[in-house]
Amino acid sequence: MFAKKKKEVVKKTLTKRSENYSQWYLDVVETAELAENSPVRGCMVIKPHGYAIWERIQHELDRMIKETGHSNAYFPVFIPKSFFDKEAEHVEGFAKESAVVTHYRLQQDATTGKLRTDPDAKLTEELIVRPTSETVIYDTYARWIQSYRDLPLLINQWANVVRWEMRTRPFLRTAEFLWQEGHTVHATQEGAEEETKKMLGVYQTLLEDYLAIPSIAGKKSPSETFAGADHTYTLESMMQDGKALQSCTSHNLGQNFAKSFNIQFTDENEKQQYAWQTSWGLSTRVIGALIMSHSDDLGLVLPPNIAPIQVVLIPITPNKEDEEEVLSVVTKIEEQLKAQGVRTHLDSRAHISPGAKFGEWEKKGIPVRIEIGPKDIAKNTVVVARRDNQNKHDILLEQLADSVKEILQEMQVALLTTARERLTQHTIVATNYQELKEGVENGKFVLAHWDGTAKTEEKIKAETKATIRCIPFDGEKDKGSCIISGKPSKQQVVFAKAY
Q: Which of 192, 363, 376, 418 could pair with 276 as two cysteines, CB 3.0-4.6 Å apart?
């Protein structure tokens, strides 16, 4: 995940995106102090700044989930292996990346003195470390649901999951990650379908209004559909290198799990019916999307609406005698901004120079930096620097609070506008296979007609490394011919290379 280095070595410059985009990403994660390697291969330690970003995402998303009528609950991290056997397609989808607990005790080896697994402590049934919670939750739901009066059941869980990934990258793909997973039960097919689309809309609001990440909403192809679902909806976002990132998914599970776990209810006519279900989730992967959507060669760039710190205050005291006056003014500014709801941090560390502070907070992506020293106080102004475009302005103290809030809003809009323009400018329409191949090779989202068969989809994937990211909701529904087979096609789909 990260290059190993000695503790005392500090990386001062980032690799440029144009030189090595993959290494640039790792450099941003490192220099912004978002995460680092853990002793377990493929897992990461999320550092305070990285976790603060996740807390902001969690705060806003949790609020929106609850506003749509859902409640939070928690279910076990260990799942009996027999639960996975109940839904064949589901177990096949997760079998290759499941971590399995086989024993429940260690013992000390009499010869070596080291700990080993106690051979007499083998579990009668092996336990799967949660890769996703459908099976354990639906075993519970079968006991909770008896009547149509118990529906809809709208539950969300914040948890960690483990998927034994072989090729990992911080935030984007790790063996353990954090997420939320919603699991709902409905009396009708229509109710379940409405739920899946509603929650996709909640995710889209989070991405656009807070993370400033535009996306294409659509349906996954059958081969990309969640294991055990009738169909899957997705939001696909474009990163700066032109690759797609699946920001979240929302699954209509139909009655597949209800039949496997016997989730039935008595309807209003006193007849037994199988329930209809959904599941949907968003993970720490979106922090990777956040990095690759907005950051630059100087480091991380955070949209103000999701930044844990929106404004950092840096006092400049070239002389000892200036300290008291400068700190007094800066403290008042801090109180004023916080009173206006601006997430503000005062960096009063005396052992670090102002220049070093500027560089540190710039790498961490803080939207606005305010500098103030004796000369500024004499002019009744402060210097305000904006992270995304590096613009700096002198602003009068009495106008500061209003000006800062205006700058934060302008930056939020600018980041979303830039990302939208990138998505628009780098999305093309291919009328033949050669145009598709050239498009995905050059980092484009390519709209092209597809005949709906797995054979054609697999051929394109094998030859271009591009996958069908989604069948857009708002795409042109014009009929055409598949660019590979020439067979009829109902509409264009999005092809792209992806993370």
A: 192
The residue range of the domain holding 315 is 311-407
Instruction: Provide the token pair at 276.
Output: 């209809």
Q: Is the residue at 16 inside a domain? A: no
The DSSP secondary structure of 358-369, one letter per residue, reads HHHHHHTT-SEE
State whether residue 142 is helix, strand or coil: helix
213 within domain boundaries: yes
Residue ranges of the alpha helices (H) in 32-152?
A: 48-67, 81-84, 88-94, 134-144
Token pair, residue 474, equals 């708002």
- Indicate whether 401 and 431 sit together in one domain: no
170: preceding bond cis by omega (within 30 degrees): no
Q: Kindly state whether residue 415 falls inside one of the protein's structural domains.
A: no
327 and 248, same structural domain? no
